[in-house]
Amino acid sequence: MHVSVLLAESLHYLNIQPNGTYVDATFGAGGHSAAILAALDSGTLIAFDADPSARARAEAMHDSRLQFVQANFRELDAQLDALGVTEIDGILFDLGVSSMQLDERERGFSFSQSAPLDMRMNPYSGRSAYDVLAHAEESELADIFYQYGEIRESRRLARAIVARREAGKLPTTTTDFAAFISGLMQRTGRRERTHPATRAFQALRIAVNDELGALHEGLAAAIARMRAGGRIVAISFHSLEDRIVKQTLRGDERLHVLTKKPVIAGEAESAENPRSRSAKLRAAEKKAS
């Protein structure tokens, strides 16, 4: 079951104005959206999600104040223009893949069960993880694993993938690819804190969905759309995302940063929802021009 991370903290930093216009950039299971709607009076919430399956969950809320947009938040400008929304009072980014998507075996985000190597947020658009492994140059694969997975042995991993590809033995499922990585990278005599394939799967997912590029674009568009006093809140789950959020918020003179240090989950939430343990929330407010 998907549980919204840092829910109370998100609402606190959004500082919801009952008649305001807000954006949930990552609708997912709708937990954050439901809480925002509960705090609104005659205000409006515009919810984005690239995953087609999210539309049914949004429509099931039966709330006329909610407008669902099936699009990645990198399309924020174009989609808000289409809706005639020139300014917003706040926006929430809950980044990464949801536990709900991880639980959908056929999406290929997890190696806990065998599934095709897909990993696309929108399964009907773009190249899959298998496409990347099957067609990317060795240098591109090495860059993906090093930059997005922070894997030191990225060149060795890329060479091994290309060798398997040329031999016609490229893994086609999540479990086969995880086993391949484990056999290649497992350190003899050492017990790893995480499965050796974890960072490789993260790197592929980020590359497949261009998550970091989308984050740069989404943050820039959100800040530009924000009216004075509006709030931007972002929850990240790994250092690459958090670095982009931190540098963007701190580096923009139009913003007043509200979180000197990232807000993290308390002991109770961490115990109840293990996913929250890696979550970091940062927030900022748009200054008056």
Short recap of the structure:
This protein is of the alpha/beta class.
Description of the structure:
With 289 residues, this protein is α/β, with parallel strands linked by helices. It has two domains: 7-100 and 211-286, Rossmann fold, CATH 3.40.50; 105-209, Putative methyltransferase TM0872, insert domain (DNA polymerase, domain 1). It is built from 13 helices and seven strands. It has helices at residues 7-14, 31-39, 54-59, 76-83, 99-103, 129-135, 138-147, 154-166, 174-185, 198-209, 211-225, 239-251, 267-272, and strands at 21-24, 44-48, 66-69, 88-94, 226-236, 255-257, 280-286. The chain has a seven-stranded mixed beta sheet, with helices on both faces. α7 (138-147) packs antiparallel against α8 and α11 packs parallel to α12. The longest helix is centred in the last third of the chain and has 15 residues, at 211-225. The radius of gyration is 20 Å and the shape is elongated. The mean pLDDT is 93.
